[in-house]
Amino acid sequence: MILFYYLSSILGLLAGNMFNYTAIILSQSISDSDTFSGWVFFFVCFPLLFLSFTAGRLLDKYSRKWLLAAAQISMACGSGFAALALHLGWISPGKPYLLLVSSVLSGIGLSFVMPGRFAILGDLLEHSKIGKHSVWLNTLVLFGYGLAPLVAGYFKEYFSFKYVFIGIGSAYVLSVFFLVLIPVQMRERSQTSSGPGISELVAYLKNSPLVSQFLLLMGAVVLLVGPVQVLLPKYAKEIMGLSESMRGALLSALGIGLVIGGGVTFLLHGLKKKGHILFGSALFSCFLFSLIPFLAESLVLTVICFFVFGFMTGVIITLIPAGIQQNTENHIRGRILSLYSLVFLLVPAFSGILSGFFSDRIGIPSTFVWSGFLEMGVLIYLSWRMDQIRSHY
User: What does the pLDDT read at residue 392?
Assistant: First the structure.
């Protein structure tokens, strides 16, 4: 049963990351503005502003399996619309804005998919096994993130954008097929109204300072994901001069690092003082990110830098959700994980717009350097303030 779930997860997560990557490189081919690429990524995450708390409440009250299936169908529709609009010429050079419609359709599903993928573990597994399987699932998230540029770049090398989006939509549908085969038993559920339950969520977080600090730290460490998503594809093509498949392969070096970093987290699972590992890894990854522009003339050094940056980031963003899962009760798990998804996705969306804005004015290399050092300043401050993570994790 759990193997079918993981198969469904990897297909859905791979398709989601392929959509983000393909939409961004499409936006860069039909618009000269890096800011517009930032908006394309932002509109994927924009629905979370309105749907995250409602999604979490529904995941705590109704079948997580069927909500997850419906969400992935919405994401398939986003890919299908992009393919149709490209076929009819609605999206083309000089006419980029309907791409935002596909982003929104994908984002509506994403509001349910990210928290739903993790929350459903509370129905599939005993509580004692959730922490370990959360690490497994987060490793699949990282695997999908890392593999997506390679797969999308390979298909784009031989097929048009239209067929790449059709392939992405097909992967979503296949993911739903495997999901509906899984018998899921609904365990403890909230019996209150179907409203967002924000007051209950706030009260829970006030009594759970460790979970609150995990969420805040996640918001800080994913600030650099925005520049990575929005600017790295263009950096690899225009500054390093790589082909579609080569830049996908280069970005996959980062992804391979993410996956290995997430896998290594299993070895850290039983250790104490994981909070110190979190802050140390985060600071070092920021330093590496700021070095990327200085290595542009050497493909080998750039690949190594991407890999190590990905490795450190993989450790960080695997330890944090595992800690949240272990310290969250099942009756409110959907809402906590919806808030986690909101932080995980919306913060990079805003930082992606900002990075595109500054890139249009000071260039991609300078934006990378400033982003890395500003992030380091934020993390140094948080490492001093977050006593719960330092002392209890």
Answer: 65
What does the alpha-carbon distance between residue 37 and residue 58 come to, in Å, rounded to a whole number?
32
Which amino acid, one-letter code, is at 138?
A: N
Q: What are phi and psi of 95, to 5 degrees?
A: -130, 70
The span from the CA of 333 to the CA of 341, in Å, is: 12
Q: Which tens digit of pLDDT belongs to each residue from 311-327?
A: 988 888 888 887 887 77
CA angle 54, 60, 61 (to 5 degrees): 90
Distance of CA 287 to the CA centre of its chain: 21
Question: Burial of 386 by CB count in 10 Å (0-12 exposed, 13-18 middle, 19+ buried)?
Answer: buried
Mean pLDDT to the nearest integer, 136-146: 75
Alpha-carbon gap, residue 207 to 129, rounded angstroms: 24
CA distances for 391 relative to 31, 377, 379, 387, angstroms: 49, 21, 17, 6
pLDDT tens by residue, 256-307: 888 888 777 767 656 667 777 888 888 999 999 999 999 888 888 988 998 9
Question: 263 and 141 in contact (C-beta within 8 Å)?
Answer: no
For 126, phi and psi rounded to 5 degrees?
-70, 155
pLDDT at 74 over 90: yes
C-alpha distances out from residue 12 to 1, 5, 7, 50, 116, Å: 17, 11, 9, 22, 12
